[in-house]
Amino acid sequence: FAVCAGDNISLSANTIAGATYYWTGPNGFSSNLEDPTVAAATAANAGTYNVYVTVNNCTSAVASVNVTVNPIPAAPILAANFAVCAGDVINLTSNTIAGATYVWSGPNGFTSNLEDPSIAGATAANSGTYSAYVVVLGCTSAVSNVNVTVNSIPAAPVVPAAFAVCAGDNISLSANTIAGATYYWTGPNGLDRKSTRLNSSH
What we know:
Distance between the termini: 79 Å
Helix content: under 10%
Largest sheet: 6 strands, mixed
Shape: rod-shaped
Order of helices and strands: EEEEEEEEEEEEEEEEEEEEE
Strand content: 35-45%
Number of helices: 0
């Protein structure tokens, strides 16, 4: 049978009336219990455990059991597109761990067993911490986390519907104030201007 590193190895034998039990095994293990335990197993405790009994000074044949101690897998290394706009896809990624089953969870009831899951059409409800761990040969890694922010789409700027100027005058374009915004103006005659200001002249 197999256990994970750090788990106990629970050995057992059937009950034989009047018997004295003699267990031996890897890493110098010995016991006279019917059902002994090896605490906090390591790779050194893997191997074959043997047991025999004596009853009235008569010795039984030896019975054996093989024990495998599987290592705890490393926690996955997670990444994501950490900030996305509402409606975009959240792409979550992990490094590849051979033989692993991935267990993801996150905001808004998100779960997945994919190595690199995605969430389409992100909303504010998808903002938060995403967690993942892996299971390899029945052994569970520590949990890793990655944070994702879903930013809302800003409202369209408010500009005048139409106005007129005389030839030779400046055209002064203006928009309402939107906190933190960078403004991108385009228009006739090759106007293409990025500005953190509200106004653009051409």
